[in-house]
Specification:
mainly alpha, 11 helices, transmembrane, transport, transmembrane transporter activity
Length: 293
Amino acid sequence: MEKFVQLVVDGLSTGSVYAALALAIVLVHSATGLINFAQGGMAVLAAYFAWWLTNQGLPLIVAILLSIVFSFVLGAAVERWLMRRFERGDPDTAIVVTVGLLTLITGIAGWLWSYNNQQFESLFPLDTVSFLGVSVSVRSIGTTLVIVAAMILLQLLFVRTKLGLALRAVAINPQSAAFSGLPVGRLLMVGWGLAAVLGAVAGALVAPRLTLTPGMLDNALVYALAAVILGGLTSPFGVVIAAWLIGVLENLAAVYVPFIGFDLKVAVPFILIFVVLLVRPQGLFGRKTVVRV
């Protein structure tokens, strides 16, 4: 029983990493209607910026706060000077552009700071807490709490604030939003900027668990996209639950399902996607889109 609980706890910790990126993807989609495949690269760039600032002698918390500001500016600039040229066209073209942007950002990070592994200081202590035979690191607890707070704030943003409602209106129908007097261009920049901020938080949380490299979040991005599909593109709450579910089931399947093991556990989220899409194409917590024709 202790082994089972330990696997669940470790899965929740890993799932929180996926959830951080998934929330940023949901934010961009809710604000622009696009899937941003460059989200992981932008998060890594923010983590490198914070790491560089710490090497200049700044305290870690100050470096992370400055990287958050840097990320907001970067996200807004990407929307204004790059994505805006494609947002009104074919969505598939815009998605391909984000894939190219991911490759570009990864290359820039490697060119500036090399592809060698770098150590990133953790925001939380490395101590562990033991309870009923289960060991949980303080870092995992802190990461999970930050993700829960981000999920709640994002849900409140889109449901309870005028800014969130305006972002949703722009994503659903930018032409009607413009006719209603909403500043569509500025709202799109804000949406991308806020998503980049979430990415910066994700990078700061993930980098200490791994080693800081340009491709640090490539695998996590795949799991984050799986969580978005499972949880639903319209539900911050849903993608976090889906990310936790993926992390837990992946751990349990690796240990308790012999033919899967640790080598094939990467297939677990894709099996879940297949099953869920057959039953609920909009995701576990997503809303159906009704189109009048």
